[in-house]
Write a structure and sequence with these properties.
Helix content is about 85%, strand content about 0%. It contains two helices and no strands. The chain starts with a helix and ends with a helix.
C-alpha cells in the first residue's frame, strides 16, 4: 500500500511541477476534496451492500 501511495505522490508532483506555491496549494485542496468525496462514495457503497 505504501508503495502505491509513493507512486501516486510522485505522479502528483510530476503533474504539478509547473505550478507556483499558491496554485499547488489550491491543487492540493481540490485533491483533498476529491479524495474525501471518493471516501464518502465508498462508504455509501459499503452501506448499500450491508442493506441488501
Amino acid at each position: 500500500m505504501r508503495q502505491k501511495i509513493k507512486e501516486v505522490m510522485s505522479y502528483i508532483r510530476e503533474c504539478s511541477s509547473d505550478m507556483n506555491e499558491e496554485a499547488y496549494d489550491r491543487f492540493l485542496e481540490e485533491l483533498a476534496f476529491e479524495i474525501e468525496t471518493e471516501r464518502e462514495l465508498c462508504q455509501w457503497n459499503d452501506n448499500t451492500e450491508d442493506n441488501k
